[in-house]
Amino acid sequence: MTAGSRGDVAPYTGLGHGLWRAGHEVTLVTHGCFEPLVAGSGVGFHALPVDPRVELESARGRGLHRSSTGAGKLIRVVEMARALVGQMTDDLIEAAHSSDVLLLSSSLGPLGHAVAEGLSLPSMGVYLQPLAPTREFAPPVTGVRSWGPAVNRAAGHVVNVAVERVFAQTVRTLRARLGLPRLGPGAVRRGRERQGWPVQHGFSPLVVRRPCDWRPGLDVTGYWWPYDGADAQLSSPLRDFLDAGPPPVFVGLGSATVPDPERLSAEVVRALRAAGLRGVIQRGWGELRATGDDMFTVGEVPHSLLFPRMAAVVHHAGAGTTAAGLRAGVPAVPVPIQFDEGFWAARLVSLGVAPTALPLRGLSSARLTSALVRATTEPSYRRCARALATRIRGEDGVGPVAEAVRRVSG
Questions:
Q1: What is the pTM of this model?
Q2: Which of 15, 69, 205, 317 could be stapled to 344 by a disulfide with Cβ–Cβ 3.0 to 4.6 Å?
C-alpha cells in the first residue's frame, strides 16, 4: 500500500514482481493512474482514489511553490495530505480483506497499520527513506544534512509526531469503526515501537548505512528496482538521436512541478549548449521541453535503459531517480526541490559521484554549466560512479523483504 507521486510507487512494482517470482500473490494498492506500471509484472492492482498530479496542479498544490523553506513546504504538504487521506480508507480496508500480510509505505504507514490491527493482519513497513530518528543525520524530509547528534535525533521524533498528526483524525475514526481501543496518535506510535514493528528500507547500505542507534527491526535491504517489463525498449527516434552523436546529458525533474516551465527549460538548454553537450529533456510533471537538433524531449522512459547511455544525469534527487542514476554508474548533478531531495543530493556529493548540488530555487544557467563541465570532464566522478554501481547492482533488495514476510506471517 502506497500513495503519492510516481516516485512513491515505481519501486514497489519491482518489489512486488520480485515477491511474485518468489511465489507470493501480490497486489499493489495505490492511485488508479499508476495501474499501467504493473502491466505484465504478475502483480495485481487495487485502485485508490485521488490523482496526485491533479492535486499538485490545483491551487492548493501550486501553493507549495510559495514556500521558500523546507519547513514551509512540509507544512503545506501536511495540510494537503490531511485533507485527502480520508478518501482512501474504504479502498484500503477492501484491499486488506483479501490479504494475508500488509506491506506499508511510509506515506500510508499509520493508516495502514490501523487497518492491519483492526483486521488482525500482520504488517510491516517498506520505506524508501530512513525516517526513524537517529543521531547520525537530520530527518531527510527537512532537507538539512545535520544539526548535530542530539538535535538530529530530537528533530526526528518531532517529524514522526507531525506525520502521525496528518493521519490522526482519520485513524481515530477508523479505529472506532474497526472496534479498536481509542488511543491518541502518540500512544499508537509508541505501541508500534514497543512491539518492534518491522520496517525494511529499500535503499543501499552503501548509500546510507544503517544508523547504529536504530532499534532492532529496522533494516536496510538494498534498492527495489522498478519493473520495466521484459520487452521494454527505447523508442526508435530516441535511439537514433543517441546514436547520432556523443552521449548526451539527461535532465528531468520527475513528478515535481515548477512555477515557470518555459523559463527553466530555457536555462537548462542554455547551460547544456554552453557546456558543449547534447541533451535529453524529460517532460515530467513540470512540462519541461526543448527544441533543436542537439536536444530531444521525452515523456516517460525506462531510466534503466536510458541512463547508462548518458554522459551525466541532472535530476531532482528523488529517492528513485537517485537510485537509477547510481545503478547506471554515471555522474550526477542533483537539483533538489523539496523534502528528502536535499538529503539524497548531499549523499551523491559525499559519495563522489556529483560535483555539487544545485537547489532549484536560485538555479542559473551559469551555475549549471559549471557543474556540467565538472561532471562530464573530471574523471573522478565517472570513476566513483562506475565503482559504486558495480557494488549496488550486486545487492539483492527483495530477498530480505521476502524473508521478513515469512517471519511476520508465521
A1: 0.92
A2: 317
